[in-house]
Amino acid sequence: MIRRNPTLIALNDTDVQQVRSAIAKRKTKTLAAKPGASTTEAIVHPTTLLQPFVAVEDSKRKREAMTRDERLGLR
User: What is the pTM of this model?
Assistant: First the structure.
């Protein structure tokens, strides 16, 4: 499979801040639309402390959990 090099996109600090503020604004709008949800909780805790999902590590763990026959498609 032939792949090309990824396209580099230059981002500066203001671009990142704009994205963060847009995400926070969208989150407060969705919470405001829900009945019974308070917007102060969204402002105080804008992000949850979840581990980020890394697909490469996940696929590596799944592959390591497989036996040799499963990897070769014999089972």
Answer: 0.36
